[in-house]
Amino acid sequence: MTKILLSAILSISFISSAFAAHPQCGETELANIMGNMKDSMKAIKGAAKSDDFEKINSIAKELLISVQKADQYVPLAITDQKELSAEQQQKFNDYKNGIANLEKAVTSLTNATNTAEQKAALGKIGKAAKKGHKAFKMDCDE
Ligand code: HEM
Q1: How far away, in angstroms, is 34 Cα from ligand 1 center?
Q2: What was the pLDDT predicted at 57?
Q3: Structural domain of 57
Q4: Average of pLDDT values for 68-74?
Q5: Number of alpha carbons in the 13 Å side-chain half-sphere of residue 58
Q6: Is the CB of 95 under 6 A from ligand 1?
Q7: Residue nearest to ligand 1 atom 12, measured at CA
């Protein structure tokens, strides 16, 4: 019984890896930067519970540096090549606009001095991430 279960699990995991979106999915420099951004957001949410604005502002400054780095990388969903076609360049410009939008929201978080400003900035960050992922993030399990 255990053997059957084990082989079933193995074949399911094999099937999903056979359909992986791209061999580099989740392994790019951009994915690495995004992972750091996720860690910063976790730390910010922790600090937000204690209304420690100074701490939030300083982590937000670190987040801002990651966001500025993310601006320089082309999402895998657009291409894995260095040379961009005109159409890919257009998509990359759209991606950069999404990152600029995020940068604005994170900048307002670095300047937030009260809970209302902080909440508004966090809301904008969440929206920018959702929109950006919907448009440009590949689903690694597909
Ligand atoms: C603070 C806001 C954000 C956070 C915390 C965040 C977090 C993440 C995480 C955790 C991943 C998965 C990384 C992995 O696979 O290891 C990811 C991937 C990705 N995110 Fe974000 N994200 C944010 C905002 C955005 C925005 C605004 C955009 C686009 C305008 C964006 C575009 C992408 C793309 C394209 C990927 C896939 C990376 C690749 O193509 O190699 N993200 N993000």
Answers
A1: 5
A2: 94
A3: 23-136
A4: 98
A5: 4
A6: yes
A7: 31
Residue 12 reports pLDDT greater than 50 = no
Could you tell me if residue 16 is inside a domain?
A: no
Number of domains in the chain: 1
Can you tell me the distance from the alpha carbon of 30 to that of 96, in angstroms, rounded to the nearest whole number? 13
Residue 104, in any domain of the structure: yes
Is the per-residue pLDDT at 45 higher than 70?
Answer: yes
Residue 115 lies in a domain: yes
Mean pLDDT over residues 105-120, rounded? 95
> What pLDDT is attached to residue 7?
53
Task: Kindly report the CATH number assigned to the domain that includes residue 90.
Answer: 1.20.120
> What's the whole-number mean pLDDT along residues 54-79?
97
Asked whether residue 2 is domain-assigned, the answer is no
- Alpha-helical segments (H) within the chain: 2-18, 29-49, 53-70, 86-111, 115-136
The answer to whether the CB of 57 falls within 8 A of the CB of 106 is no
The sign of the dihedral angle between the CA atoms of 45, 49, 50, 53 is: positive
CB of 48 closer than 8 Å to CB of 122: yes
Centre of ligand 1 from the C-alpha of residue 14, in Å: 26
